[in-house]
Design brief:
14 helices, 11 strands, binds 2-acetamido-2-deoxy-beta-D-glucopyranose, 5-stranded mixed β-sheet, alpha/beta
């Protein structure tokens, strides 16, 4: 507005003034989402406010008032299959899921899970994690029984939550995002618990998404870049300086005890940028999702367009 030499320039400057708030759809229940409220509270300097609303990447396809969304790569791929304008622009968190099992059920290796009852949530990143992890021990889906249940964020864990089901021997083990595995191990006693995880085989790639249309709108794009910049500053704090106030902030956002947040912190990597291994990783995952969703698997070339580093390169 400082240099309005031409009327047209002034008008466009004025027109872009009443900026609308950036709206971000995200599940608000999990640790992985917490860099977003932290970034908004401490670092975001867009043209207006940024607001988190309950939702996810599915909202980008159906609701134009949503500008950004956060979800695991699993939900991102499911949506991209039918909405090719969705773009993954940033990795908020990579979470190395854990399968926790009861040694008393005769489990000391992954192969021992043959014939066992394993808690997980089908149709989510956790279901894929179980399939991949047990696959490394040569086990097929038909070699074990999956049992559905709920997560638990804080003790006491109620009926039908995985930690409680493990303690009452309704299941022999379970695998899902934190802190349920941590609370499951505590429920049966650390000495009775055995953990399995394999970061290379599977980690949740909890990402930030937008659409090509949002990125093509210059004012919107500026705010998106500002939000990613604020996330980048947050990830620096979460990675290099997670002091008591950070654990308390995260705990308060998702209803956990700060001590448990601290205990499961090492299972989370606050990544930001991705490496060349992400494309083969999601190509492999999409083959599995294509089967469960009864559709064609996407080609590597198609998936390459899904991964968009433009915003990161603009920071
Ligand atoms: C992860 O799985 C890969 C492939 O099966 C295997 O080579 C690697 O040793 C595993 N890593 C761990 C830590 O078990
Ligand atoms: C992102 O944060 C890192 C610190 O973790 C910093 O070195 C880097 O310059 C930041 N990138 C941008 C583009 O702001």
């Amino acid at each position: 507005m400082k240099h309005c030499f031409f009327v047209v320039g002034c008008l466009s400057a004025i027109a872009s003034l009443p900026a609308t708030a950036l709206r971000i759809a995200s599940s608000l229940q999990w640790i992985e989402h917490t860099p977003q409220p932290y970034a908004i509270k401490n670092f975001y300097k867009g043209s207006s406010t940024a607001t988190l609303v309950s939702g996810g990447v599915a909202n980008l396809g159906s609701d134009r008032s949503i500008d950004l969304a956060a979800n695991a790569e699993t939900q991102g791929l499911k949506q991209y299959a039918s909405h090719k304008n969705i773009r993954l622009i940033y990795i908020i968190c990579e979470a190395s899921y854990r399968l926790v099992a009861n040694k008393a059920a005769g489990i000391s290796t992954l192969a021992d899970l043959k014939g066992k009852r394993i808690g997980t949530m089908q149709g989510t990143s956790a279901g894929y994690f179980i399939n991949k992890l047990l696959g490394t021990a040569g086990l097929q889906d038909s070699d074990y029984r999956t049992v559905s249940g709920n997560v638990c964020m804080k003790t006491p864990c109620g009926a039908n939550t995985f930690p409680q089901m493990l303690a009452s021997k309704q299941i022999d083990g379970f695998g899902i995002w934190e802190p349920a595995p941590e609370l499951g191990a505590r429920a049966i006693g650390a000495d009775n618990a055995i953990f399995f995880q394999n970061y290379t085989i599977y980690r949740e790639v909890y990402s930030l998404y937008t659409t090509q249309e949002k990125l093509a709108d210059p004012a919107m794009r500026k705010d998106i870049v500002a939000f990613v910049k604020a996330l980048n500053q947050t990830l620096d704090v979460f990675t290099n300086n997670p002091d008591a106030s950070v654990y308390e902030f995260v705990a308060s956002k998702v209803g956990m005890d700060p001590e448990v947040v601290k205990a499961v912190w090492p299972e989370h990597k606050w990544s930001g940028r991705w490496g060349p291994d992400l494309l083969p990783f999601i190509t492999e995952e999409d083959k599995y999702l294509a089967k469960t969703d009864r559709r064609q698997a996407m080609s590597s070339a198609d998936l390459e367009k899904f991964l968009d580093t433009e915003v990161l390169d603009e920071l």
